[in-house]
Structures are given as structure tokens and as C-alpha cells.
Amino acid sequence: MTTRFRPAALAAAVLGSACLLAAAPAHATTVTEGTAVRVLDGDNVYRDWFVSRPRCETAGQGGLARGHWEHYTCSPGTVWWHLWTNR
Predict the structure, then answer these.
(1) What dihedral angle (degrees, nearest 10) is formed by the CA atoms of 41, 27, 76, 21?
(2) pTM recorded for the entire structure
(3) For the segment 15-44, what is each residue's pLDDT rounded down to a tens digit?
(4) Is the dihedral of CA 48, 53, 56, 60 positive or negative?
């Protein structure tokens, strides 16, 4: 049996831990409460994962420039950074 790498399945598994990490995200639309990072209620659409914070921010800024969303959050995961948007 061959095991295939499935980024979408792995990203879904990591999503649960994204809000529990101590590292603060780069974008100002998140709130840090103690050591937990919480994505604001308006940033509830998961877009994608990225290997670094700068790549996540580039994608977030690109969406802002194109008018796809009004704000975004790059939250840290166990390995990757996750892009959340308001729509």
C-alpha cells in the first residue's frame, strides 16, 4: 500500500491547533489572549496554508489589492502559516 501526501487533509488536521499556539500572528486582526491566539470572528474563511509568514502575508495583501476580502489573518500552525479572511 502506498501512502500519498495530501496537503488538504494535513491542513485540516492542523487547523484545530492553529488557535492554540503561543506565537502571535503578524497581522493586526487577531487577538492574543494570554498564550492562545484567536482568529477574530470576522476572519472565519480558511483560504490556504503557506510555508512561511511572508508568503502568507503576500497572499493576504494580494487578496486585499484585488478586492477579494477586506482584512486577513496569518495564524501560525504547527509547521505552516494559515491564511484566514473575512469573506
Answers:
(1) -60
(2) 0.55
(3) 444 443 434 444 444 444 444 455 566 778
(4) positive
